[in-house]
Specification:
The complex is a heterotrimer. By secondary structure, chain A is of the alpha/beta class. Helix content of chain A is 27%, strand content 14%. Chain A is built from 11 helices and 9 strands. Helix content of chain B is 27%, strand content 24%. In chain B, the strands form 11 sheets. Chain B has a 7-stranded mixed β-sheet. In chain B, strands 10-7-6-18-28 form a 5-stranded parallel β-sheet, with helices on one face. Chain B has a 4-stranded parallel β-sheet with strand order 2-1-3-4, sandwiched between helices. The longest helix of chain B has 21 residues. Chain C is of the alpha/beta class. Chain C is 38% helix and 16% strand. Chain C is built from 4 helices and 4 strands; from the N terminus they run βαβαβαβα. Chain C has a 4-stranded parallel β-sheet, sandwiched between helices. In chain C, helix 1 packs across helix 4. Classes of the chains: A alpha/beta, B alpha/beta, C alpha/beta. Chains B and C meet through helix 4, helix 13, helix 15 and helix 16 of B and helix 1, strand 2, helix 2 and helix 3 of C.
């Protein structure tokens, strides 16, 4: 049997998913037995033109990690979709926008102004900001357009499978790769992770969900056995897909939501607001307000609850100022 | 199978059609996915309208029906029946409220049609997702609780009891009879209130099916129609009821005899700390007033009452008790309070000793009252000129906006009684004469012919001019300001909601109207039921009314309770929460959100579990479930999201 | 994209069956007029109003969302309205971070007899929304 052709590519991402791939260790060699790597910028040098020259569907499996942040990301996503039989969104950025998706609380102008002009570490006397096109003596220089809004991979192209996580665990990755390189492909849309939310896998004791305030992890002497939420520590586990193996929980860190929502959670922010507010033990408006303002990151529920999934959420981004 | 929905848009005569272009709604609806038929009809609720739906369901194999008409609060149940008749589950019906919440609140041409289209679209979108669900039938408890032992409650209790069923009659006071027991004569027949009430009181006391609980208050209500669990707190009477004969020996022996203002006599008479308020009291048992009794308050008393009681009935060791009763229906007949005219100086109450309230006059005129039925001034002489002031505290922007309904007639009665007993001249200071009942107008003319003066007054004020009590007012008909010297003023005060009506409404989960009285389901067509199934209203707790109306409503409430008993079972709404175990991760956030403790945690399965018999379908758990594992039948997340899409959707696409 | 000038705000109102919905019916029976751009969605209790519904309404094009039910203490389900109240500050704060002004999401108690109040609340809220201008979130499509 001919070896499969495997591509791994990154768009707007930190590279952590690549690291997770490498963390598979010797199993990479096993992968090599069944697949030829036709594209993987981390491990070898490839050019756009190499990909363009491929026949359509020449790639059997493409693992694409990273959100879609700019025009280059989009073009590569479209190109790889065209060249791949199976396109997999790898990692939280490709699945739901991930950490880069937090940029959706701002638009391009705000980001450029801060990064290139206003931040304390900027020394940019000429006030130069990126342009899609600039004339220099040598000719025209171009940059891909930077989008106002970070997109998930499936908002740009059709995606076949999802492997969530920031990063995905090596166990999950290996299982997914085994399945994808096997004889029988799972139904389209399959998410290679748990189907319930994380609490299902959490072994901490749950006694009663009633809290009088939110507390920061660093500020409390936590009960190592008990549910974080019951101690007033925000944990996104109830609305986050399981499958991570509870790594954070075992290290006494609450879930930050990197596996994103399940299909039935739909919108992590909405569900976490509903669930966490339901625990507030007060019947008085002022007191409820007071408690609500004291989330671990004060007055920042959106970034707390949508840390990894804002572009995937119902509203996708902060409303643009110029919208009205 | 693809959904096949029929849409029926009602004109409601011109009620909807005058504001909403019904044809346009139908034309739009016909274009939507799954809509196989869209029609309009002048009155969808009429027999031909209903037939239209039945015929279509059968001939077009409809899987869902949308009726765009009046509020679902009007005809939802009826249209569900129409679906059932044609063989469809009733919950496959969706109603778009295009009358109360569209046509009637919009000006013609101001987007009402677009709104009707949007509401109908939302209903269609939801109807596509509706699932057949079935009401649950639960046997009913045949006992009935009547709260309040005034004439309305007594009537209701007797009627249910006479039909052969157990009644708990809970009365806060030590005696039943309510305000009516205090009255002297009743208008318009002028028969003695006690004489017509006593047989009813005795009937209650002797009835084998009535458990009378005096000195008692309802403190907790759980459950639902057919199966209420009620906790009743009974304060100690400090009297062995079985031993007491009501002879009154204890009262006369009490060291505080004749020193405490008697509530029953509206403060005109006095009683002891142990007392029997009136000779016909039911139960005819003494009662120790714990707030005033020297022994109970200070522990220091000669306890002459104990010595005086030959039957050893006095028992200072009695304690408060709480009993739990189970009933199928509850009739609330908690009555009214009387407005305190002392709050406004212009009525002179509390300032001039010969200014009394209507209730005080009743006691004065009553042969067993403090003056033994004589109409007397504070100095013991008979008045020669008496004023009756209407609408004290009622029909007022400052106090109570509502009309108390009975005061015009009782004022005429006061006039008649004063004329009859003293021959004094009587002046009625009225606002309008709201006289509308059977033979009321005849009574008015009779009193008028007895020589009573009627002054249509504005700005009535009670004052003293040179030491002489006088009523001053603008005489609206003559257009002059008048000062009329009188010896006595009777203030006919408003009937107002009980001071604790708010607390009681919450206890039973019923609503109150803007005037503060308990709210009926429908002002015209459902004046006895409340929004709480199985809880009914009788008497003045719902709004001021005279004795015949109170009795009629008491009987009507009894009929409601009896119909529940006769049916033997009640249907519980099939709208309940359901857990999808495959989605529940066992976070246990929902447990705390259920007000009825319907959710428990199944340790073995690691998932939440809902007791559908207890669940009432509020949906609080669903909104709190972070995993989207709890849904509500008929108000499912998917159904509501579809409805939201519907109300927001564009006109041109769907 | 809608502009401020020819703007009739879309207000989605989630009303509890027992109080606010009945109150809205009452406004109808009394013939009290209010803007036709108010769209009512009936729920059994304000406690049912999942934050998801609120976000969905904004995404579908609502310029404002009103949640209205029984006054505290009057809830048909003991304290479902209190549960709605517990969610309100957190949800409102999150909406503000998403650029949806505080005034666009309101929780107001309206009893079954307060038809006039219901009409007043929605009229005032519509006026406020008119001032704020269109939200233009419809479809959530603001890409690129």
């Amino acid at each position: 049997m001919a070896k499969l052709k495997l591509a791994v590519y990154w768009t707007a991402a930190c590279g952590g998913c690549d690291m997770a791939m490498l963390d598979m260790g010797e199993r990479v060699l096993e992968l090599d037995r069944v697949a030829d790597i036709v594209l993987w910028p981390l491990v070898a040098d490839f050019k756009y033109s190499d990909v363009r020259q491929m026949e359509d569907n020449a790639i059997d499996i493409c693992l694409l990690h990273g959100a879609v942040r700019n025009e280059e990301n989009r073009q590569m996503a479209e190109l790889l979709r065209q060249k791949s039989r199976v396109l997999v969104a790898l990692g939280s950025c490709a699945c739901f926008g991930g950490i880069p998706g937090l940029a959706n609380f701002f638009d391009r102008q705000e980001i450029f102004t801060w990064v290139y002009l206003e931040s304390q570490s900027t020394d940019n006397a000429g006030g130069v900001c990126p342009q899609t096109s600039a004339r220099v003596p040598e000719g025209e220089l171009t940059l891909p357009e930077f989008f106002d809004t970070v997109l998930t991979l499936d908002q740009v192209v059709d995606v076949d499978y999802y492997i969530p996580g920031c990063p995905p665990t090596t166990e999950m990755l290996w299982q997914a790769i085994q399945t994808l390189t096997g004889d029988q492909l799972p139904p389209k849309g399959t998410v290679f992770a748990g189907s319930k939310t994380l609490c299902d896998r959490c072994t901490r004791q749950k006694e009663g969900k009633s809290i009088t305030g939110f507390r920061r992890l660093a500020a409390v002497d936590i009960d190592l056995q008990r549910c974080f939420l019951e101690q007033g520590i925000v944990c996104c586990g109830p609305a986050t897909r399981s499958g991570c193996g509870g790594r954070c929980l075992r290290a006494n860190m609450p879930c930050r939501g990197c596996f994103g929502p399940t299909e039935h959670v739909r919108d992590q922010g909405a569900r976490l607001v509903g669930a966490i507010a339901a625990m507030i033990a007060s019947d008085h408006r002022e007191e409820i307000e007071k408690i609500s303002h004291l989330l671990p990151v004060p007055d920042d529920p959106a970034a707390t609850f949508y840390r990894f999934s804002l572009p995937h959420s119902l509203l996708k981004r902060k409303r643009k100022e110029n919208a009205s | 199978m693809p959904e096949r929905i029929g849409v029926y848009v009602c004109h409601c005569g011109s009620n909807i059609a005058a504001t909403v272009d019904v044809r346009q709604v139908v034309e739009q609806a016909a274009k939507w996915d799954s809509v196989v038929v869209a029609r309009d009809y002048k009155y969808m609720c009429s027999a031909p309208g209903r037939e239209l739906v039945i015929k279509d369901i059968r001939e077009l194999n409809l899987t869902g029906v949308v009726v765009a008409s009046c509020s679902p609060r009007m005809h939802e149940a009826m249209f569900r029946g129409v679906l059932e008749e044609a063989g469809l589950n009733g919950y496959l019906l969706e109603i778009a409220n295009i009358r109360e919440q569209c046509a009637w609140v919009s000006l013609p041409g101001a987007g009402a049609t677009a709104k009707a289209v949007a509401l109908t679209r939302a209903a269609v979108k939801k109807a596509r997702l509706n699932q057949p669900i079935w009401e649950r039938e639960i046997p009913v408890n045949q006992a009935t609780l009547v709260v309040g032992g005034g004439i309305a409650g007594i009537q209701a209790a007797l009627q249910v009891a006479n039909a052969g069923y157990l009644v708990y009659l809970v009365e806060r006071e030590p005696y039943i009879g309510g305000h009516m027991a205090q009255f002297d004569k009743t208008f318009i027949t002028l028969d003695c209130a006690t004489c017509i009430l006593t047989p009813k009181l005795a009937g209650v006391e002797r009835h084998p099916n009535i458990r009378l609980m005096t000195c008692s208050e309802v403190v907790q209500v759980d459950g639902y129609v057919g199966n209420f669990r009620v906790r009743v707190k009974t304060s100690p009477r400090y009297i062995h009821e079985a031993s007491c004969t009501g002879c009154g020996a204890c009262e006369r022996a009490c060291v505080l005899w004749d020193s405490i203002p008697a509530e029953f006599d509206e403060g005109l008479g006095r009683r002891g700390a142990v007392y029997v308020p009136f000779p016909q009291a039911v139960p005819l048992k003494a009662r120790v007033d714990g707030k005033n009794c020297l022994y109970l308050t200070t522990g220091n008393c000669r306890r002459t009452c104990v010595t005086a009681c030959q039957r050893g009935a006095i028992d200072f060791d009695q304690k408060e008790t709480v009993s739990e009763i189970a009933v199928g229906s509850i009739i609330i007949a908690t009555g009214f309070d009387v407005f305190d005219p002392g709050v406004e100086p212009r009525w002179g109450y509390g300032r001039y000793e010969n200014v009394i309230t209507g209730m005080q006059f009743e006691r004065m005129s009553n042969a067993s009252g403090p003056t033994l039925g004589k109409i007397l001034l504070a100095d013991g002489t008979e008045p020669r000129r008496v004023a009756v002031v209407h609408c004290v505290g009622s029909r007022s922007k400052k106090y109570h906006r509502h009309c108390s309904r009975v005061c015009c007639l009782s004022s005429l009665k006061f006039a008649h009684l004063v004329r009859e007993k003293t021959g004094a001249e009587v002046f009625e200071f009225y606002t309008d004469l709201n006289i509308f009942g059977k033979q009321y107008d005849e009574f008015y003319h009779r009193v008028r012919e007895e020589g009573v003066h009627f002054i249509r007054a504005r700005g009535t004020e009670v004052t003293e001019i040179d030491g002489q009590l006088a009523v001053c007012a603008e005489d609206v008909e003559l257009g002059v300001y008048r000062e009329i010297p009188v010896d006595m003023v009777i203030l006919n005060t408003a009937l107002i909601p009980r001071h604790d009506a708010e607390k009681v409404s919450r206890l039973f989960g019923i609503s109150r109207s803007s005037d503060g009285f308990f709210m009926e389901s429908h002002m015209k067509l459902d004046p006895v039921t409340t929004f709480m199934n199985g809880i009914y209203l009788a008497g003045c707790c719902q709004s001021p009314k005279d004795i015949p109306d109170s009795v009629a409503q008491g009987a009507a409430a009894a009929a409601q309770a009896l119909s529940v008993i006769a049916r033997g079972k009640v249907s519980l709404s099939p709208v309940t929460a359901r857990v999808t175990e495959e989605l529940c991760s066992g976070c246990r956030i929902c447990l705390r959100t259920c007000p009825f403790q319907a959710i428990s945690f199944d340790q073995a399965a690691g998932t939440a579990e809902i007791n559908e018999a207890v669940c009432k379908g509020c949906g609080c758990c669903s909104a709190a479930c972070p995993a989207g594992a709890i849904d509500i039948t008929h108000y499912g997340t998917g159904q509501l999201l579809a409805q939201i899409e519907g109300v927001c959707g564009n006109e041109d696409k769907d | 994209m809608r502009t401020k000038t020819d703007f009739e705000p879309l207000l989605v109102a989630f009303l509890c069956h027992w109080c606010a919905y009945t109150g809205a019916d009452f406004a109808g029976s009394a013939g009290i007029k209010y803007p036709a751009s108010v769209r009512i969605v009936r729920v059994m209790c304000t406690g049912r109003v999942d934050p998801l519904f609120v976000l969905k309404a904004f995404r579908e094009g609502a310029d404002g969302v009103l949640v209205s039910g029984c006054h505290p203490g009057d809830c048909h389900y003991v304290d479902g309205n209190i549960k709605a109240m517990r969610r309100e500050p957190l949800l409102a704060a999150m909406l503000e971070q998403l650029g949806i002004e505080r005034e666009r999401f309101q929780l107001v108690w309206v009893s079954a007899s307060e038809g006039e109040k219901f009409a007043r609340v929605v009229t005032e809220m519509t006026d406020t929304l008119r001032e704020l201008g269109p939200l233009n979130l419809k479809g959530g499509e603001q890409l690129g």
